Amino acid sequence: MKLRRMISLLMLLCLLGGCAAPSAAPSDEKYDSLIVVGFSQVGAESDWRNANTRSMQQALSAENGFRLIIDDAQQKKERQITAIRNFIHQGVDYIVLAPTTEDGWDTVLAEAKAADIPVIIIDRMIDSSLATGYAGDDLFTCWIGSDFQRQGNAAVQWLEQQFGDQPLRIVHLQGNYGSSAQVGRSASLDAGLARNPNWTLAARDSGDFTQAKGQELVEAYLAQGIDFDVIIAENDNMAYGAIDALKNAGLTPGRDVTIVSFDANRKALEMVMSGEINYDVECNPLHGPRVQAVIEQLERGETPPRFTFVEETAFDAACLTQEIIDSRGY
Ligand code: GYE
CA 83 to CA 116: how far, in whole Å? Predict the structure, then answer.
């Protein structure tokens, strides 16, 4: 247990028991030596997210010297802010934040900074102006995640290669508005629409990264008689929902409608192999060992890189092998 946590506990004991010296049982000693990490997770909206949570649990385990406290915010930023305040109050050693959306973190992260608790941001970013510099830059220690615009560019380039200047009517299922994953992936498609005059947007809505909403949206478009050639789903779970809606309407996904998706979970790769998904851009959720490495560096007094972009690729049936699917860790 670090000093900060020790002080919080002593204060609590003073309040409860008039400052009697606490006696440490052997099991307490083991507990005391663990690094306490409070992790504010977005939610459990997708397979990607669940793989990310599992990766954190596996890496930040007691065996590895950590005590991990996870708060599931159910995709609500207000809940994340409350969770971070609770972590500060508990005196955790580190805070890990996977932010729902990019804006609105200045106040609570300034509170963490005032309490001298390092904040590691994973997956999405706070404020998107990485390139131009962000006023709140010193409010976090480092960030680990994906280049979402690069992922979006891969999807758009694949469509350009496949269809040339053929007319395309595109349905765009977006993630939750204001999240870096949505902002980056959507920005790429907007650029693609601008440079391909034969592409039109048949429909565009947020499915909040969930399978149920992906299905609902596509069912609604079909019921409205909207015609489309391509569905771009900003994650696999929305693609699964869209595929179910198409099948229920007697259409063959991957053939009648081209499906482009993001994440490349194992199940989705199997669907690339069977032809139901045409192209899937990888997004790696296995940040647990990366966070572990960063904390261990900080514990040794070293300075980890401020921004770590994870290396990623993309798959269509032409480049996918069974070996890749079998070695998929998520
Ligand atoms: O693509 C989606 C999840 O932020 C990269 O969030 C993450 C996205 C991921 O719900 O499946």
Answer: 17
Q: Mean pLDDT over residues 250-258, rounded?
A: 98
For the chain, give the mean pLDDT. 91
Rounded Cα gap, residues 176 and 207, in angstroms:
7
**Cα separation, 278 vs 254, whole angstroms:** 6
Q: Please, what's the b/e burial string for 201-232 (b: 16 or more CB within 10 A of its CB; e: otherwise)?
A: ebbebbbbbbbebbbbbbbebbeeeeebbbbb
Identify the bridge partners of residue 94 per DSSP, sorted by sequence position: 37
- Give the C-alpha separation, 177 to 315, whole Å: 26
Write out the two tokens for 118: 């390092």
Burial class for 238, CB neighbours closer than 10 Å (0-12, 13-18, 19+): buried
Contact 68, 34 (CB under 8 A): no
Q: Considering only CA atoms, which of 97, 81, 118, 150 is closest in space to residue 309?
A: 150
pTM of the entire predicted model: 0.90
**How many Å apart are CA 283 and CA 151, to the nearest integer?**
8
Backbone angles phi and psi of 66, in degrees to 5: -120, 155
CA torsion sign for 239, 245, 251, 252 is positive
Residue 203 amino acid letter: A
Site to substitute for ligand 1 among 263, 265, 280, most atoms within 8 A of C-beta: 263
For ligand 1, residues with CB inside 6 Å are 45-46, 48-49, 123-124, 146, 181, 209, 235, 262-263, 283
Give the nearest ligand 1 atom to 234 CA. 1
Using the mean position of ligand 1's atoms as its centre, give its distance from the Cα of residue 197 in Å: 29
Q: What is the mean pLDDT of residues 224-236?
A: 98
Amino acid (one-letter) located at 25: A
Distance CA 276, CA 258 (A): 8
274: number of Cβ within 10 Å: 11
